[in-house]
Amino acid sequence: MPNRTLLIAGNWKMNNDVAEAAKLADELAQALPEVPAGVEVLVCPPTIDITTVHDRIQAAPIALGAQNVYWEAKGAFTGESSCDMLKSAGCTYCIIGHSERRDYFHETDEDQNKKAKALVAAGLVPVFCCGESLEVREAGTYVEHVVNQVKAGLEGLEITCPKQVVVAYEPIWAIGTGKTATAEDAQEVCGAIRETLKEMFGEELANGIRVLYGGSAKPGNIAELVAKPDVDGALVGGASLKAADFASMVVKAGE
């Protein structure tokens, strides 16, 4: 297996006002003055909290990301943030394609493709999310569904280094439900994603692209997940809101 750096990424979603974000960022910086070799740490707070969190983690080995971006550089797009805005606030990553954006805000694969291309062009790393509903899972077409999302979302993306993009597999039925895909389930789909990336970007690049698992990932299952050959870390929701739990996941991933 190629030697890929694991990525433990926290998606804070719509949680924490500025004061709460500052407190959590301080706790994370104290809990993670250093991280295990072979592990990278990322937190993605709400947009309103980004600069506050940046100021508190910049001395810690923790990268900063956003939860959304718009593909245009500037203009009359009320409520949106551009790639350059995120960069100026200290972000190096940005989540795109999360099921909550797709479901609640009706974002399409085409939208994700535009976002991915804009982020890479700006020197930011998209964390491209994909995953199936319970209905698709039970129909048995989940691998095809996820593969099609990856193909549509990353089509035409021009990368020369595998660290320019991250893919996160999040089965929708496991997000925030307490249900977790087994490590074998995660490997099945993450492995299929890897094969799709090989078709799209060639074997050398694809073998270096990190594929994460998300969906009720927590301290109790992270070690089993990252032990699988095609699972390179986790996109963490609820557990990322507790500094002790998130730090524990980072440590256990690196053991």
From TrEMBL:
InterPro entries: Aldolase_TIM, TIM_sf, TrioseP_Isoase_bac/euk, Triosephosphate_isomerase, Triosephosphate_isomerase_AS. It catalyses: D-glyceraldehyde 3-phosphate = dihydroxyacetone phosphate. GO terms for cellular component: cytosol. GO terms for biological process: gluconeogenesis; glyceraldehyde-3-phosphate biosynthetic process; glycerol catabolic process; glycolytic process. One of its GO terms (molecular function) is triose-phosphate isomerase activity. It is an enzyme of class 5 (isomerase). Pfam families: TIM (PF00121). The keyword Ribonucleoprotein does not apply. Transmembrane segments: none annotated. The active site is at residues 98, 170. Keywords: Cytoplasm, Gluconeogenesis, Glycolysis, Isomerase. Its EC number is 5.3.1.1. It is found in: Cytoplasm. PROSITE patterns: TIM_1, TIM_2. Homodimer. HAMAP family: TIM_B. Belongs to the triosephosphate isomerase family. Involved in the gluconeogenesis. Catalyzes stereospecifically the conversion of dihydroxyacetone phosphate (DHAP) to D-glyceraldehyde-3-phosphate (G3P). PANTHER family: TRIOSEPHOSPHATE ISOMERASE (PTHR21139:SF42). This is Triosephosphate isomerase. It comes from Collinsella aerofaciens (strain ATCC 25986 / DSM 3979 / JCM 10188 / KCTC 3647 / NCTC 11838 / VPI 1003).
